[in-house]
Each structure stands twice: as C-alpha cells, then as structure tokens.
Fold HTH tetR-type domain-containing protein.
Amino acid sequence: MNTTERRIHAAALRLFAARGSKDVTMSDLAEEADVARGTLYRNARSIEQLFQQASAQLVADLHDANARVMDDHRYLDPPLRLATAIRMIVRRAHENPAVGRFLVQFGLTEESLREALIGPPMHDLEAGVTAGRYAVAPEMKLSFVSLLIGAVVSAMWMVLEGHQTWREAGTGTAVLVLCALSVPREEASKLATAPLPTPPENL
C-alpha cells in the first residue's frame, strides 16, 4: 500500500469514528485526507467500498504488528501470547484514539470487521487447546472468541472514556480472559503484567 492510500484510509477511519456511522461523503474524505476527489475515486468506487478496505487494512495492520513483535521463542506459550496481544491492542487504542474509537464503534456491529477480528484469535485459541493450556469445549470456541473481542472492545472504551489507563484496562482484561480459559489466577496475573514488547516503528 502506498503513502496516499494509507493517508486516505487513515482519514476514512477518523471520519467514520468521529461520526459513528458511514454517513460520509467523498468530498468530506477528500478534504480530510487532503487529496483530490479523483484520487479518491481511483482508490474506491464508493464509501462502502472504502469502509471495507480501511477496515480490512486496519485489522491486518493490528494482527501483523502483534505477530511481528511476538514472532520469537519468548511468545510460544499461548496464554502469554494472548495476554500480550490483548494489552498491545488496548495500548494501540490509547496511542491512536481514532483507531480505538473506530473499533469500539464498529467492531461488534459490522459483520465483515467482526469476522476479520475473529480469525487470528481463533487460531491462537486452537493452539492453546492443542497444547493443553486451555480448557474449552469444541462447541464453545466461537462463543469464547466472540467474548474475547467484546472484552477487548470494552477495554478500549474504558480507556477512551478516561475510566481506566490502558495498562489497567489491558491487564484486567487479560487476566479475566485467561481465567475464563482455566489458567490459574496467579499465573494469569503474572502473564498479564509481563513486560510488553516494543511496537514496530512504522505504526
């Protein structure tokens, strides 16, 4: 993705988050992104298409950022990987409120965005079950991942509304999620307060 496309997507996320809906015009976006309308139409034929593109890119960036900083032996243990991912995403909402508000506004209501968010957590959940670290019945896996996404979205809302710091919200959510997976509370608390990796420089 080139610089102009990233600027357009970032502008779209800001406007969608600020308005709480897709009630945005191409003129609005052109002004927010500081590009010509023709440039917008070369990147997306409609607001709906741009919403889908920006959503997909955002989720890909979030998951890619987590994967890149946890792609070594220190994060092979599924509970540590999950706790770290939760805390990093909540921290991202603090560092980039527009991203956080977009996910809070649309993460549970837009089916395509919700499905994209579910993918990697489901993979990590399967890895934890296979490794014997989690106790989750097969028929409950999708329900648990839905619960996970709801918990993370709620944590971001708490941060954005000033009710908790990102550290408090991220740690508390990670502990609750791990305990729900039958990780002992003492271990869950230790994993949820471990030092976080440094985010990739291009975020």
